[in-house]
Amino acid sequence: MMGEILFLAHRVPWPPNRGDKIRSHHFLQKLMDCAPVHVACFADDEQERQIGWDRKAELASCEIVVRNKPRWRAGIEALVSGKPVSLTSFENSEINAYVARVIATRPVDCIFVFSGQMAQYIPPDFDGRVVMDFADVDSAKFESYAGEGFGPMAWINRREGRLLSAFEKDVAARADHSLFVSEAEAALFRQRSGLSAGRVKAVGNGIDLEFYAARDVHPEGLKGEGPMILFTGQMDYQPNVQAVQSFSMEVMPEILARFPSARFAIVGRAPSEKVRQLDGQHGTVVVGAVDDIRSWIMAADVVVAPLRIARGIQNKVLEAMAMARPVVASTCAAEGINAINGEHFLIAESVEDEAQLVRDLLADPERARRLGEQAGILIQAQYSWETQLASLPALCGFSAAVVAEAAA
């Protein structure tokens, strides 16, 4: 008899409108095609908790809890308990009760955990399969923050990195498989955990190829202006904030010296105060949220991913490549993407490189067109979700015969 799956996620895995939710959304759908799935997750607010999804009725059960614990309280709980803030922020009695009830009353033989914060809900006495999708090595991200910071925040980030690293190792030792978004992240975690390639695997992100084909989408942009350089992303996320600050203040002056009418458009939800302050400086325009990001990608002359701290695979890069736009990415933003520098995108190793590579593409539209065209061909061939998630059912213990039966 086919068992059931308990799917734990730190955010509601629909709609797929930001990087982590895109990944969790497609993982969930793949697992729903294998077996009945119970979902426990958090919503940022009541509005998100109420958002519908056309496949929600297919779930075996679903528990969505609004996460409203203040950061100061999570910080105090972390100091008192000796836990990472990443865990205390997501501690919740309702989720605990739901997990216990589902495990006690349903034939769950696999727990799939999306994001390390949710691993605390794996019951210690659960004897079924556990698959942990870390996506990125989060502890390494906090170590990077600590290395770049100073004062109290550096201390907080060092503590978080150290405690989270120990927690990640304990979780991975318990899990049957630990998944990461790229082979680079998986290799780093194997080194840190001592676990083998059989236990720590890369399962990459894909792209909704039909959606990004954008046949019925019309380009949008900064009307009547010069060439448009585009950055997309969640704009209250620290690495994205750092990226656009650096590009606006350090790179754009060099570009404007050669292309005075160039504009740098920052497109994405929830721009922080630091991001909003960039508006009007060095050709920078803070657009904020838009109805359809594809229309802005289509209109861009160059898409940039100038991240200084990045882990895993950047969806923003895959999306731009899928739409055949020329991309200039920093070294860490390009990591994990199976593409060739100079053929499918351009990798900048420094701020000076970013300025030069963008200027070169703006000066040679034909080269930019070819670069984008080759990127689109690559994404079509390698980055469908079907291709990327082909191994997921087997990792969760489902044979090809079981998957075929469930789909019938």
Automatic annotation (TrEMBL):
Domain of life: Bacteria
Domain Glycosyltransferase subfamily 4-like N-terminal intervals: 35-206
UniProt-listed Pfam families: Glyco_trans_1_4, Glyco_trans_4_4
SUPFAM superfamilies assigned: UDP-Glycosyltransferase/glycogen phosphorylase
Protein name: TIGR03087 family PEP-CTERM/XrtA system glycosyltransferase
Upper lineage: Bacteria, Pseudomonadati, Pseudomonadota, Alphaproteobacteria, Sphingomonadales
